[in-house]
Amino acid sequence: MTNKLYFMEPSETLEQLKQYYFPPYITLAHMFHAPNGWKLKPRSLKQYQLQYVVEGVADYHISGHDYVTERGDLIFHRPTEPHYITTRQNEPYVCISIVFHFGDTGFPIHQVIDASNEIGPHYMGNYQNHTIEHKLTELVHHYRMPEVTDHFLCQSLLTQVLLQMNKQKKELAVSTSKKEDANKAKLILIRNYISNHLQVGFTHQDLEKLTGWSRNYIITQFRSAFGMSPGQYLVWVRLEKAKELALQSGQSFGEIANRVGYTNIHAFGKIFKRKTGMSLSQFCATLFKDTPDQ
Prior knowledge:
It is a single chain. This protein is of the alpha+beta class. The mean pLDDT is 87. It is built from 10 helices and 8 strands. A hairpin with a 2-residue loop joins β3 (48-62) and β4. α4 crosses α6 (215-226) and α4 (148-196) packs parallel to α7 (230-248). It has 2 domains: 5-169, Sandwich (Jelly Rolls), CATH 2.60.120.280; 183-287, Homeodomain-like (Arc Repressor Mutant, subunit A). This is Helix-turn-helix domain-containing protein.
């Protein structure tokens, strides 16, 4: 029978506690006030680094990715990633730098920090006046203190920062997913509204009232989802309905035009031919060609 962990020597428990990791070892935590025109030459570290902008602006370059970092921006990069920083002439730049590692353990940092986003894989977000900013500032303060309790607090604060970044990322993912679902639902609502009002048409005010979106946003989102604007979709729906009526109802050309929202028969005929390459009668003829007797 395997001994219970709490009866073992500490060193004996490590093999069975692989899912637990050492707290981060901090090798640098300071607030840096850059002199005018300061630049950090290209380098790569053997440890992890967080860089938080307290004031000003700087251009941060990491592994081929370029970031314009401003007040509140947090950048994270991994060991061996080449990076350099350039500041703007006569622009202030104050930052907090935290460099840390997890000993010889292969720490699965990607499970805690997933920085995949449209801005780039090193940009963690903007935390101006956020608790993360306060924790980083407090960490720098305690890092200079000699007591073991201060060092222990520094490790605790950095762990809290990493966990909070993870939480923010998950909340953002859920929020983004919910927004995307809501957008899809509204786009389907627009599409159904247009289909159900093909005879009378619609105004952009109708769609704005239906969704709460602006006209430009409606057009952009609708085109992205369906490959055409709402107005183009209305024309497409009307032509498809006209084809259906021509094949099934036996109605006259004028009646079909009226059913699909065109009071001007000639205008309808021109649109149909321009969009399909043939007149409505030619379209029907292609589907009802006489077949020879067997």
